[in-house]
Amino acid sequence: MTAAMRQVRPLLTEKNCMTAVLERIESRPRQPHLHRILGIVAVYLVVGYGASLIKAIESPNKDDDTQWLTYWVVYGIFSIAEFFSDIFLSWFPFYYMLKCGFLLWCMAPSPSNGAEFLYNRIIRPFFLKHEAQLDSVVQDLKDKAAETADTITKEGEQKAIPWSQKAGGISLGSSYYCT
């Protein structure tokens, strides 16, 4: 972390148009440049990449769609792993900063895009190796979900028939309430 800070500090202290803008912003409340940069990154994460997703969907070019689908696959796997390990990871200093950096690396529109790297090196080979097993599990889950939906529907119908018989066959539809 200190090596990265040594590289960033000169950029924050030398005179250029960016530091002039940051100094102007900083002159109001006293906060270091780093907080401002983190705020700009946070706004980009919330607003900027949401707009780029919409642009990717609306564009005729499908390469950007593939980039964002790759990102969301990596993000989904990361979220699942984080769900089970968050209680331990949150105790590490700078975990949330590292997580933010990781997500920026994954969505960066550069040749060293993290999502494409992780997908091509880890996720895709794993998926191709276990594709038949994953398909089998997904099909079993679909079958069980359909079976459960059928069971619930049948139970609902069985409970609804005696109730309508107790009501004497009188329909209490919308005409009953609208008169």
TrEMBL record:
Keywords: Endoplasmic reticulum, Membrane, Sarcoplasmic reticulum, Transmembrane, Transmembrane helix. InterPro entries: TB2_DP1_HVA22 (IPR004345). Its main location: endoplasmic reticulum. It is found in: Endoplasmic reticulum membrane; Membrane; Sarcoplasmic reticulum membrane. Belongs to the DP1 family. GO terms for cellular component: sarcoplasmic reticulum membrane. The chain crosses the membrane at residues 37-57, 69-89. Plays an essential role in heart function and development by regulating the organization and function of the sarcoplasmic reticulum in cardiomyocytes. This is Receptor expression-enhancing protein. It is a multi-pass membrane protein. The keyword Transmembrane helix applies. It comes from the Eukaryota.
